[in-house]
Amino acid sequence: MGRLFVITLEGRFYRCKHCETHLALSDDILSRSFHCRHGKAYLYDKVVNITEGEKEERMMITGLHTVVDIFCIGCGSIVGWKYEAAHDKTQKYKEGKFILERVKLTGPDGSNYLETQEAQVGGSDLDDA
């Protein structure tokens, strides 16, 4: 494996809660109205310092999607997923976009989000928008 180059973000950003690796700018959030099993999740067009897992078909609240899990390059923790394909034409806008799970991040102000009772027990990808 080659040498890892970690991108350092400037401004207000979210980082991995385990190793503090920078992942995404706060200003780049496309939507805050997503949820996952652990609570809130944010939709992004661009994230950094991640690796992608294997493609898989996953049934979510909004239908069947082809996704890959995304992992922090600093510590290997899963931090969310990327939409590779949406099988429902109304969900095509998600293709190529990333979800970061808020419970796996440290916020721009240093805050951590704790799993709440609002969390979805049976699935992920609830889009309120």
Automatic annotation (TrEMBL):
Keywords attached to this entry: Metal-binding, Zinc
Transmembrane segments: none
InterPro entries (UniProt xref): Yippee (IPR034751), Yippee/Mis18/Cereblon (IPR004910), Yippee_fam (IPR039058)
Region (Disordered): 107-129
Ranges of residues in domain Yippee: 12-109
GO molecular function, a single term: metal ion binding
Pfam families in the record: Yippee-Mis18
Family: Belongs to the yippee family.
UniProt name for this protein: Protein yippee-like
Annotated organism of origin: Rhamnella rubrinervis
